Amino acid sequence: MMPVDIEVAGRNAETFPVLHVWGWEIALYLFLGGLAAGLLVLAGWAHRRYEPARLGPALGWMGPLLAPVVLSIGMFALFLDLENKWNVWRFYTTFRVAAPMSWGAWILILVYPASLLFAWAAWSELGPAGARLVTGAPFPLRRTIAGLNVALGAALGVYTGILLGALGARPLWNSPLLGPLFLASGLSAGAALLVLLEKRTSGGGGWPRSTCGFWAPRGCCWGCSSLLSPPGGRRSGRPQSCFSAGPTRRCSGWRWPSPECCCRYGWSVWSGGGWWRTRRCRRC
Amino acid sequence: MPRYGMAIDLRTCMGCAACVVACKVENRVDEDAFRCRVTQRSRGEFPNVHLEILSERCNQCSDAPCVWNCPTGASHYADGGIVLVDESRCTGCKACLAACPYDARFINGRGVAEKCTFCVHRVREGLEPACVSTCPSRAMIFGDLEDPSSQLVRVLGARKHRALKPEAGTKPNVFYLE
Predict the structure, then answer these.
(1) A5 and chain B: CB distance < 8 Å anywhere?
(2) A116 and A46 within one domain
């Protein structure tokens, strides 16, 4: 049998790597990207299948109009995560077949204009005011655009899962199931939002606003924080998990926590990510 | 075409971390970052347990997940199979950090991925990497794995050795002599 490491330690713990790779930006993007994918696939499918007159407001115009907004916020979060933002254009000077992130970069650059096109096509469903402002696409063209969005939306929903699932270095992510799972969770998030919108606009009641406002983001955060490692700064935090036996630092009396620590503690308490695991920074 | 590798003798390595310091000085690594480290591991199963000291760095894998996961081609193979990062192409997306089973990479102050380069600037001039030439117990051997006459190949042929995390399937080129 292969020997197993019982513990990993060292007297020079400051040389150990910080195992926390991605932060809240990627968690936010994974949720919003999945949500946008769900909206595009479901609304696209509905627009392909049914005449616009038969669709309610949620599938008719809210979904198609919300998708690019959600996607914009998600893509902006993705951009914020880049450490060398000036080189973002480098994604588009090459295509690496083996790199899921390269596929993702190209899928995003294709799905974004497609979702804008879909929003334009569905604009006339907004009512007389909307139709006066912009005339939506005629039905056959709209069907084509909707079909395009179903395909690209599905690609958007799957690639994030494949990206994380291809990381052999992170055993809990390393599974081919992650792609379909991410698509399924994106579809369920999109469906949930569409049901919520439909119920609220058709006067069918829907859930109380306070319940949705509190639980929806909280649920998302729980999901995200269980997916990603517990919060901790790349620069200020000390290595986490595996290399836990570093030198212990004693608190020398009470000091006010730094704003950074407040944010980190606040985030971990709010997201249910385990405040007791959150390390303090060097200053406090 | 050479394929550079390294062997570290666990019998003579005493965990002094001179390699860590030499690397830091040679490569002018950021204040709060290191390209290599010395870890202390308890291995085995009770009662057959033993403690070992490992000087760890990028394994310059022949099938490196950081290279094929890089979306821009910034992580690439240079001469001798050394994995390098082209700073002008790196976006700091951290795909390579997440892909590396050895946690050998970090994002430096310029926002790009950084890692051990086997001191490629020294190797190109015919010198050994800084860690190897510094090692006070001569526990580290650097050389060409394709050259049968090199000391590295001879030592690997004569002594029992292993690589770290062979289960990751990355064909690492840093070996530990037991």
Answers:
(1) yes
(2) yes
Residue A7 at interface with chain B, using a CB cutoff of 8 Å: yes
What is the C-alpha separation between B161 and B155, in angstroms, rounded? 9
Mutation site, A7, A15, A172, interface B, largest B CB count within 10 A:
A15
Contact between B43 and A4 using a beta-carbon 8 Å cutoff: yes
A218 found inside a domain? yes
Domain encompassing residue A168: 24-227
Q: Say if pTM beats, i.e. exceeds, 0.90.
A: no
Strand duo B4-9 + B174-177: pairing:
parallel
Specify if A3 maps to a domain.
no
In a domain, residue A42? The reply is yes
pLDDT per residue as tens digits for the range A61-105: 899 999 999 999 999 999 999 999 999 999 999 999 999 999 999
Q: Give the CA radius of gyration of chain B.
A: 16
A167: how many CB neighbours lie within 10 A of its CB?
A: 22
Domains of chain B: 4-177 (3.30.70.20)
Same domain, A77 and A199: yes
Same domain (yes/no): A97, A133: yes
pLDDT in tens, A153-185: 999 999 999 999 999 888 888 888 999 999 999
Q: Does A83 touch chain B (CB under 8 A)?
A: yes
Q: Give the integer Cα–Cα distance in Å for B75 and B175.
A: 22
Instruction: Determine contact: B69 vs chain A, CB below 8 A.
Output: yes
Q: Total domain count for chain A? A: 2
Is the CB of A281 inside 8 Å of chain B's CB atoms? Answer: no
- Per-residue pLDDT tens over the stretch B135-178: 999 999 999 999 999 999 999 999 999 999 998 899 999 999 98
Query: Position B70: which residue type?
Result: C
φ, ψ dihedrals at A23, nearest 5°:
-110, -155
Give the three-class secondary structure for B107: strand
CA distance, residue A55 to nearest chain B CA (Å): 40
Question: Which chain B residue's Cα is nearest to A19?
Answer: B103
User: Do the domain assignments include residue A111?
Assistant: yes
